[in-house]
Every structure is written in C-alpha cells, then in structure tokens.
Specification:
By secondary structure, this protein is of the alpha/beta class. The chain is built from 5 helices and 5 strands; from the N terminus they run E-H-E-H-E-H-E-H-E-H. The model has no long low-confidence stretch (mean pLDDT about 95).
C-alpha cells in the first residue's frame, strides 16, 4: 500500500530530499506540501480523506506546526501524524504525545526511524 503523505516543512531542500528518500525507500506518495501553518491547516480541512500520513515540522516560516497538529486532532483512526523536527526534545515529545501525535522523529539522526515507521504503516495497510 502506498501511503498518501502530506508534508508541512518550510525548508525546500529538506522537503525535497525527504520526499525523494521516502518515495524511494518507503513507498509514499506526496499528495501535498505546505510551508506555513495556514497553508497546512487549510489543506487538511479541504482534504479530510485525502491523506494517510502527515509529516509536520514544528517551526515554520509562518505560524507553527502545533497549529497544524491541532487541525489533525479529529482525524480518522487510520490517519497517522508524525513530527519531524530539529527540536525533538523530551519536552517536545511529551507535548506532541498530549496532542495525539503518533511519533516524533529528530531530523538530525532519526530519518532511518521515520523510514521504518512509514514501511510499517504500508504493511499495516496490506493486512
């Protein structure tokens, strides 16, 4: 199963490299991207059923990923939300868990774990 993935990331280089890696290694399809909180929230509202996985950075050009995460609170059970951030501290992980985030990954050293997570979600969809 290909994961329809929505990405909220304001750094174009990181976003492009992430998409390339996940398409190649984890069978995702990028269905949309946003660079700001407002764009992310609007897309999610307009595409309630159009995604399986949302990958959200916390610090954005405008607004924060926390606002995007709030938009995901009422998602369907099969829709997963993960945070990919340079600031994946214990406090951030706790706060994200309180907001219903399924996983938190550090950009600097947990990309392999994100790929593994995506592969696990693909396999769950086949069951």
């Amino acid at each position: 199963m290909t994961l329809k993935t929505y990405i909220v990331e304001d750094n174009a280089t990181i976003k492009d490299n992430l998409i390339d890696a996940l398409v190649e290694l984890a069978d995702i399809e990028a269905v949309g991207c946003a660079e700001t909180e407002l764009e992310g929230r609007q897309w999610l509202r307009q595409n309630e059923r159009g995604w399986d996985l949302a990958i959200v950075d916390l610090f954005l050009r405008q607004g924060t990923g926390l606002g995007v995460l709030r938009e995901c609170l009422e998602r369907k059970a099969n829709q997963k939300v993960v945070v990919l951030s340079n600031y994946a501290t214990a406090a951030i992980r706790l706060r994200c868990g309180e907001m219903g985030v399924d996983a938190v990954f550090d950009k600097s050293n947990e990309i392999d774990a994100l790929v593994t997570y995506c592969l696990q979600q693909c396999h769950r969809g086949k069951d």
